[in-house]
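User: I'm writing a tutorial on reading structure tokens. Could you give me a worked example: one chain, its sequence, then its tokens, then a sentence or two explaining what the tokens reveal?
Assistant: Sure. Here is the example chain.
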Amino acid sequence: MSSAEDFASKSYDYVICGGGTAGLVLAARLTEDPNVTVGVIEAGANRLNDPLIDGPNTFLQLWDKPEYDWSFKTVPQKGTENFVHGWARGKVLGGSSAINYNMYSMASRQDLDNWVELGNKGWGFDDLAPYYRKSETYNKASKTLSAKINDKYVDPLLRGTNGPIQVSFCETDCQWLQEVWPETAINAGYPQPKDPRSGSALGGFNQLTTVDPKTVRRSYSARAYYEPNAERANLSLLTEALVTRVEFEKSGSGNATATGVKVSVNGNEHTIKAKREVIVCGGVVNSPQILELSGIGSADVLRKAGINDIIFDNPNVGENLNDHTATGIPVAVKDEYPTAEVLLRNPEIAQQAFEAYINHKAGPFTNAPTCCGFLPLSTVAPNLDDAQAHVKTMISDFQRANPDADPAGRAELLGRQLLNRNEAVGQLVVLGVGADIRNAHTASKVFVHDAPGNWITLGMCSTRSISRGSIHIDSSNPTKHPRIDPAYFSHPLDLDLAGRSIMHALSLTQYEPLRSKLKLDENGNPILPPWTAGLPNNLEEAKALAAGNTVTEYHPIGTCCMLPKEKGGVVDSELKVYGTSNVRVVDASIFPTHVQGNIVSLVYAVAEKAADLIKGKATNGVNGH
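And here are its predicted structure tokens:
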């Protein structure tokens, strides 16, 4: 790592703005060529070997701490009872891959083929599958663990064998919930799961995690992509440095050419020169912010924020924000089944557990959440008489009322997908701790509550929300967070599906072996905490329950969409920013539509493909593997 003065004294072929999940993949792959120089600028610090990051299940202790987390907040959300939502986003080398849940998922075939249908040739399921494999090493579970958690759905032939990111199941502390979940799902009528890499993931199973089983440490981009290559002479890293804008040279009516970036370090400004390209990898919040601060965005938004040097007027920048919602309903479990409440309420026990992790790589902090399910509409809403008419009518009614909201026609595409029997309308995540969504404004407190006893949370997460919001600067000050408005439940179909999904999730409490672990009331019903309104009796009550108990699933996408410009695009299918000759965006902000499940695996795959595009090894429609 360099001092700011040393770093600024050199020029680089590629300047990467953001040493996060995607940025470090690019840095590693581009510097494989010893003749190429790369400079990476990261706003957070290098915290490699920090035990709170390394611990697979210590991530809640990172959130809302400025040394790890941007701690963004949304504006009040009408759709969720005017809650302000805390958005944990990694402000540290490795970005959000350093602070996430470690859950490792997979987009469906249709998710990615949607991208092609929207005009992005070369970005379909078959195009990206080799890049998923290139980024990972799958570690098979031992026979003992396999018998407990039922990992037989994984097809090793579809998995990577020598990629940087290690994925595995936890060998050291298998928990009761992970043992009972697969059987409960089958007894509830879920299909036998197949490997999500086959293109479809339905059923209930224990999901893989981004944990290295040999070291029992989080496997994330700083550890996997940066650390092994840190000594390369052609790779330079500047941490604790805020990119304030991209510098452009504009000639006549053609595209603007980036010459470098301005960075602020301890209040001092430096110019970093780029010979070939500037690559923005700031994530869904910071990438549109950097573009807008640099004069690329809606001229109206920019002028209101005090940016008068308009490089390229593109009102799509910062639009199309799309997030997975997570509606969490806690359910009481019997005292003999331990949950994370024991750690959250008793600092002495938490300290002992942390020492067990540090000294022996054992105990509850070794085991990230794994219990999940992917459910089609027919499972979530079996009593919906005419699902096709219901979904189509809700989409067309909204489009009639908002004719300019969706120039790409995404809602219709997603509606078709929601009706497909092989596609999930929801991801069920079962967590071994109770959630109090009244604390949505502070991410680190969502799992802190005062209800006595042990709890699990049945979390129903959207897979493809149709509601779309925005992220925009309202100040030219780069240290001021932009205005984040995910517009949760602004599309009525999203709330409708959340209500139906919650009723379905609560029905799982009727099935063994989960049921016998729960505390039940005198009528045999599960016990909900006092801050919920009790079990819903009908869809309207379930929708009200969803509106009051929903948070982000921390999967925002879309603010620098990869689409034709007239359809809402910010970057083209080579990830080049419209209006520029040599600026790209590479991170989840380019996703044109959402995909099911946890998105970190897709960010790695997108960054791997982007590296090949930049090297000229992959062209759209033909990948270089």
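What the tokens reveal: The longest strand covers residues 268-280. The mean pLDDT is 96.
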